[in-house]
Automatic annotation (TrEMBL), chains A, B:
It comes from Prauserella flavalba. It comes from the Bacteria. Gene3D superfamilies: 1.10.1660.10. This is MerR family transcriptional regulator. Keywords: DNA-binding. The keyword DNA-binding applies. CDD domains: HTH_YyaN. Residues 1-71 form the HTH merR-type domain. SMART domains: HTH_MERR.
Length: 130, 130
DNA sequence: AGTTGACCTGGAGCGCGCTCCAGGTCGTAC
DNA sequence: GTACGACCTGGAGCGCGCTCCAGGTCAACT
């Protein structure tokens, strides 16, 4: 089973342009082509894309993803170095989550303040119309 | 107490250029100036900067921060709309955290796989040298 | 008086990650 | 045979958030 670029885009959630772009910058091995020279993405291609989008979601820069992709092309021998990249990224993600949670607290605090302002305001109106 | 731009940069963690840039794009009210025309940031300026950097950390686009800043300049009357922005952002942050946590699981899974590869590899070496 | 260094302004430039475009080729449907 | 639509290529353009630069002013120090 293989997929046209439009199908691959739909399934990966990336745009057609982005798929071609990823190929150009060596994130993605050039997929097979059909008789007419059109890209035919395999299930494997899609699985790799799905992992790539995970990495992107974590905020990994494309430069680093290319590094990972390059290692992957070298096969098993590069497994150690690939693992290092993932472990590093895991750390970065954990940090980022902590950072966001701290921000969440600040937001909650501010929102609480606005709540109090609203209540004071409502009280004022009750008083005025009493 | 007021602070030179260098001090403000040090305390806010932003660069001097970024401070001037924020002022240019109306994120920051133009701070007071000393006799020589140099910026003199107040404690309030710094507090606002610190909140701004929180918002940036959550990934709020600058466009939206400007909106918030503009409302703030309009005083109490805009409190309701400012609250809406913060509540919305809180939602976005919560979503983002969830997304990152999902990615974390994928990373853990992949890293586990690499661990297994390493162990299998180590076993092979033991066998070979036995 | 001269040098240094922090600061000023307006504007250009940059790295990132796409996104869009022009101009062309195919295969299918009418 | 022609119109259409999906796809192709190479390359330009874009929005974001800074970052850097040239050329200048000013206060302090020697």
């Amino acid at each position: 089973m293989s997929y046209s670029i439009a199908e691959a885009a739909r399934r990966s959630g990336l745009s057609i342009d982005t798929l071609r772009y990823y190929e150009r910058i060596d994130l993605l091995e050039p997929p097979a082509r059909d008789a007419a020279g059109r890209r035919a993405y395999s299930e494997e291609d899609l699985a790799w894309l799905s992992f790539l989008t995970r990495l992107r979601t974590t905020g990994m820069p494309i430069r680093r993803m290319r590094e990972y992709a390059k290692l992957r092309r070298r096969g098993l021998a590069s497994a150690g170095r690939r693992k290092v990249i993932l472990v590093e990224q895991r750390g970065a993600v954990a940090e980022r989550i902590a950072e966001l949670q701290a921000c969440l607290e600040v937001l909650d605090y501010k929102i609480d303040n606005y709540d109090r302002i609203e209540q004071a305001d409502a009280a004022l109106h009750r008083e005025a119309s009493a």
